[in-house]
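Ticket #4471: structure export looks truncated?
Reporter: QA, pipeline team
Priority: medium

Steps to reproduce: submit the single chain below to the structure queue and open the exported record.
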Amino acid sequence: MKYNTKAILDELEALRTQLNTLIAQYFPEDAPIQARANSADLALAAARIEESRAQLALTHASRFPTVDANLAASRSQVSEHAGKLQPGANPRYNDFQPGITAAFEIDFWGKFQRADEAARARMLALEAGRGTVLASLYANVAQGYFALRGFDAQVALAEQTLATRRENLRLQQKRFEGGVVGELDVQQAAAEAAAIEATLLTAQQNRRATEALLATLLGRSPAAIVQPVIARGTALETLYTRAAVPAELPSDLLNRRPDLVAAEQQLVAANADIGQAKAAYYPTIKLTAGLGYESRQLSTLFEPSSLFWNLASGITQPLFRAGSIDAVVAGAEARKAQATAQYALAVQ
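Actual output as written to the record:
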């Protein structure tokens, strides 16, 4: 499956920018900044992305040769009674060997290419997952903020109503003292005032709980969560006016959802895993090379006559693995089936 990594990353960044701009229109200026900067979920998502980038770099590096520098020095003694020495030869000798070795596995069947594709797709899925976390965070902040403004309105209404009910109770008590009304009317007015007072207490409690929730979402300290101070910002009526959803939204907006991008890239990765697993059925072709110097004396180590080199190649064809390759392929195909189902669920 062909895809443009840069285009996907640019699209996800544009979505995050749009979210930042959108939420800044509704809420106090520092709210989205605090939520984004202090969110542990976003920090976790960012760390996972960095880990995925490192894994992608590691996987991509396997497509290139490996080159190592070697330096060996040894001192040995040969038995004088083993018949291996020339008469008069020194049984002790040194051996110095600096050199360079290289190895390369030819990606004839696309094993490394498919592994690189899978790692890249998983990194893109995590990038999209970060967008989902950000959208979820902003949604929670938005819901909490609208709930808070709603409780503000409930408290204000309850306070006004309670003042009216208390005034009515005072008047009924005066009328009762004047003999105009009976005790039942006074008790009814008292019950109405008590009911509104209970409603006010409930609204105030809900408002405090919502303020604490918003303080938690904004990543504030424990003290600021216990005694939160949440700026109210735009008037509630203006918020609802701005919250109107435009008509005739194009259906291709669904394709821009980060969760759909993540599900699609997980499917891409699972499909690439199958290709990587099936490559194990075919021969492995490796090339190796070595170049260096070897001498018993340091004085002659870098003379042309001390140079040595070697070239080698090898082919390994699996003949019997007791079904291990089949099991790896079957597992990869099962994971692709899971990713397909997850993508279908995300689309639905």
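Status: closed, not a bug. The export was complete when the record was re-opened. Leaving a note from the reviewer for reference: The longest strand covers residues 92-106.
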